[in-house]
Amino acid sequence: MSAVAAVLAGGRIAAASASAKACAATTAVAASRMSLWAHVQQGPPDPILGLTEAYNKDTFPNKVNLGVGAYRDDEGKPHVLQCVTEAEKRLLDAHLNKEYASIQGPKDFRDASAKLALADADNALAEGRVTTVQSISGTGGLRVAGIFLAQFYNFPNKDRAIYLPTPTWSNHLPIFRACGIEPRTYSYYDKNTCGLDFKGMMQDLDKLENGSVVLLHACAQNPTGVDPTPEQWHEIATLIKQKNHLPVFDMAYQGFASGDYDKDAYAVRHFCEQGMLPFVIQSYSKNMGLYGERVGALNVVTTDPQQASAIESQLKIMIRALYSNPPIHGARIVATVLNDNDLHALLLKETHAMADRITSMRTRLVEELAKAGSKLDWSHIQRQIGMFCFSGLTEQEVQELISTYHIYLTKNGRISMAGVSSGNVEYLAHAMHAVTAHRE
Ligand SMILES: Cc1ncc(COP(=O)(O)O)c(C=O)c1O
Known about the structure:
The chain has 16 helices and 13 strands. It has helices at about 5-35, 50-55, 80-95, 105-120, 135-150, 170-180, 200-205, 230-240, 260-265, 265-275, 305-320, 330-340, 340-370, 380-385, 395-405, 425-435, and strands at about 65, 130-135, 160-165, 180-185, 190, 195, 215, 245-250, 280-285, 295-300, 390, 405-410, 415. The radius of gyration is 27 Å and the shape is globular. The protein folds into two domains: about 50-80 and about 355-440, Aspartate Aminotransferase, domain 1; about 80-340, Aspartate Aminotransferase, domain 2. The longest helix is centred in the first third of the chain and has 34 residues, at about 5-35. Helix 3 (about 80-95) runs antiparallel to helix 13 (about 340-370) and helix 7 packs parallel to helix 8. Pyridoxal-5'-phosphate (PLP) binds near residues 252 and 296. It comes from Salpingoeca rosetta (strain ATCC 50818 / BSB-021).
């Protein structure tokens, strides 16, 4: 081989080995890319939103979605409140800019929101003892409350427990777990009466270490639709005060339970009047139909304005790191409605109408079940309140409703009454009777 040929051959060998090396490196990168997330397993669908996905895929013409907790009108359509549309027109006409809100949200929103929840209970607002921050609806308010409690509350138990009613909104558990707070339970629902297990609840609350954190649904308990009576709330408040527990009120349904905002805030205000310092988490998803706007508030009642200010400063530090500042549109709608006498009055009327439609569907469903020939006692459907009815249907009966009748509801038998309408109530009653007739 000539010297030139040898050099050329050497070059080819060097090039070939460089390309082999590059190829090996590419394969190694590809392999490490493959393994980067290989350990991530497919997660289960959300128990409630997963149902909507299954419902959407179903091609049966008379399918019914009773899973998701969102109001529908009597034609089964999503509903935008007139007061909201009017507020949006005014906001558009005002040609507002889109600058960032402050970390805690606009003041006109926060003041109006706190007033809607607390009114003049125990003079807390007048004395400047309440911290209110806008939240990413009820879910975000609960999450910020959880983060604050995890950092600042002096829990009486090592694993920092929050006590939740059994059953409760399924999302409460992951929300508090994500904050490093351990969800535990207290008795709430009595399967035999489809009502409140008041005795069990009181016994459990009494057994907790003093100073425990107790979550209470302010009204329209989700999923059971079972609320304590005012007299029972008095006894619960007395016990919680005696035990020095910290009450955390989830108030996702103010106005939606009875149609009356003051009546639905009775428990929250009573606790304040007894001198307790509750956390109150509000949502405007249901009562104003602002589901996708994600607007709510976290209120912390304190003993004095200095404490309120210190708590606000810490909440702001937490919010800044979470999402910096809240979305403006929903808060502007709520502030416009609540701060205008006419729009506020219209809101009360419209919330009342939504609550009334749901109540009338409860009556119709019980009547239609009887007409369909059911001999079972369904009276709890009428006794329960708010968006949900805890029907008492078993998991197997629910499965049959889904597979045979294309009626979608959560496996614990919770019916979103907001999805029941004049057009489907007869079909629903017929199907419920068919899957439960074996029990008669
Ligand atoms: C009891 C309860 N709390 C809080 C929420 C939170 O809802 P959002 O985040 O839409 O305000 C819900 C929604 O279904 C609920 O039922």
